Amino acid sequence: MIETLKKEWLTDPKTNILAGILVALALIPEAIAFSIIAGVDPMVGLYASFIIAVSISILGGRPAMISAATGAVALLVVPLVSEYGVEYLLAATLLMGAIQLVLGILKIGKLMKFIPKSVMLGFVNALAIMIFMSQIEHIFGISISTYVYVGVTLLIIYVVPRFFKAIPAPLIAIIVLTAVYLFMGADLRTVGDLGAIERSLPSFIIPDVPYTMETLRIILPFSISMAIVGLVESLLTAKIVDDATDSYSSKNRESRGQGISNIIAGFFGGMGGCAMIGQSIINVRSGATTRLSTFTAGMVLIFLIIVLGDLVVQIPMPILAGIMVMVAIGTFDWGSFQYVVKAPRTDALVMIVTVVIVLFTSNLAMGVIAGVVLSALFFATKISNITVDRSESGNDVSYRFNGQIFFASVDTMMNQLDLDDHDKAIELDFTAAHIWDDSGVDAVDTMITRLKRRNNQVRIKNLNKDSRKIINELSMINQEELNMGG
Amino acid sequence: MYKSILLAADGSDNSYRAAKEISKFHFEGTVVTVLNVIAYSDSKTDVLHGSNNRSLERERLAKISNITEYFESENIAYEVLFEHGEPKETVVKVANSGDYDVVVLGTRGLNSLQEMMLGSVSHKVAKRAQIPVIIVK
User: Fold this and answer.
1) Distance from CA of A120 to the nearest CA of B (A)
2) Is A124 in Cβ contact with B86 (below 8 Å)?
3) What range(s) does the UspA domain occupy (chain B) (predicted)?
4) CA–CA separation, A373 vs B17, rounded Å?
5) Residue B1, SS3?
6) The pLDDT of residue A163
7) Which residues of chain B neighbour A348 with C-beta distances below 8 Å?
8) Lowest-confidence range among A135-139, A385-389, A474-478?
9) C-alpha span between A41 and A317 (Å, rounded)
10) Which end of chain B is more exposed for a tag (fewer CB within 10 A), N or C?
């Protein structure tokens, strides 16, 4: 226990602290931009990022993973904030955390494996597209200088790292271009035009909403979506960090940690958040392996805001928009184009449907649910494929069943039988079949009863152990027929 | 003679040519370590596109199968080493670990942007490695 704690906190502290500082610098523009997407003051995202990073560093399951305010959650809450205001967002965040905590206690991490690859691809791509679309209003049709600032920001972000990597390029873009703006002025909107920055630590508050069923009715759908999306992105990120650091982490502890962190965030005026793929990769790439890096990121972030708050409001919006374009490009899975061409048709369709549903409903959770349901249907269709081969020699007829016998496949199976046989010796060969449920047992029962009614002798062959067990429990077939096969 | 050869491989034609070159100077008892560096950003792509954790390694092995199959057909003893990190630094780090006599690599890899930058990995390795470097054109 002490050994683990030591390893998870104190291995190579210098590298981890430096990585954490780097992440803090990269988090600031994103936390502000995500707040603006959600329609709240930048402080709501900054407080959230500080609290969630610090809290998850202690409670999370995945050392060196970075969690903070994220685009995925921010995009979900836009309608809630615009219709009811920020207090409802805080209340929804509390409930989101509570749901995640319960799911974590119920060991829901395992359920992640039921989200197919095609749905995950659709999820990240839809997220990328939505982040990009959220920036259109900050880029297009404002002023010529807006285009210039966005362009130069992107140039700095993509060219500078080729020569200089010590400071994150987005931060260089912010410092250089904000300085240029302060000296030369331009027709631009700034962060200050969209919200205020307070140079203070967050304090404990209870969200100012009426605690009624009506409020619950309003926030519950949002909280459920936030909880699902937060866990999907967090557990995906955890898997990526697992791979990048060649280690394993507890997904259930991560789910519980995400839940508690969001509850704390809600009580301290922060919006909900989750793990961030991009920031976690920056952290690991900088050599981080421990919880100390995540903890440092949160602490440095709030320190910088308190010291530099006055400067932050001067940052021109187009710089943040440029950074968000980079985030969108980095989030998008560019291998998906090849995937759509090469993957099985149904998988490609599931991915596209997931993206389309998200864009249509502006709700990532809807996309995930629709994607999972659709792929489950495709799976059921595929697996309900059953064939029955009939062979006949003289008075002997043999039916050979190939496939899974369950509620979705029994009709196909029965349609392939010729129940007109009479006075024959009929063998039902289940070597390549498996009976799964009572519909399957019923079907076999029906088949045997009908065959016997026409004076046939029926024999069952090679029923596997599980199928035999369920037949024994549910069927009217007598032991005689079962045992004859063996 | 070289007993322990490090081959930086990304599965590209260039690294395949580098592998073929090894057949000209390997001896019985020589072991070639095929090093494949997985960039941190590749972890995202691989996890998203991999069917599950266990198949990840298999899919990564498949990426350099042109090289391992070649070594098998030539009866050259080899082992595969996956390392996470930025390609340049990681190849240098492994080359300087003291376990290898020589490092072999192609002029440029798969990354099309890096092709424009004129084989920055081979450039860096040539500069920083403390063991002989063979760059195969």
Assistant:
1) 7
2) no
3) 1-137
4) 47
5) coil
6) 84
7) none
8) A474-478
9) 14
10) N
For A7, residues 6+ apart whose C-beta sits below 8 A from its C-beta are: A290
Is the distance from CB of A78 to CB of A38 less than 8 angstroms?
A: yes
Residue A372 sits at φ, ψ, to 5 deg, of -65, -45
CB-CB under 8 Å, A239 with B53: yes
- A277 contact B CB<8A: yes
Q: Does position A485 have pLDDT exceeding 60, yes or no?
A: no
CB contact under 8 A, A240 and B44: yes
* Count of alpha carbons within 13 angstroms of residue A144, beta-carbon side: 0
* ipTM surpasses cut 0.90: no
**Residue A269: Cβ-neighbour burial (10 angstroms; 0-12, 13-18, 19+):** buried
Q: What is the pLDDT of residues A345-359, one digit of tens each?
A: 999 999 999 999 999
Which of A70, A71, A64, A25 has the alpha carbon at shortest distance from A295?
A: A64
Q: What digits encode the pLDDT tens for the residues A51-108?
A: 999 999 999 999 999 999 999 999 999 999 999 999 999 999 999 999 999 999 998 7
Chunk chain B into consecutive blocks of 10 residues (it has 137) and report each block's average pLDDT, rounded to whole numbers: 90 88 88 92 88 74 91 93 90 94 82 53 89 90
Strand, coil or helix: A418: coil
User: Cβ contacts of residue A26 below 8 Å, gap of 6+?
Assistant: A168, A170, A171, A279, A282
Strands (E), A410-482: 425-435, 457-461
Residues of A with Cβ-Cβ distance to B117 under 8 angstroms: 162
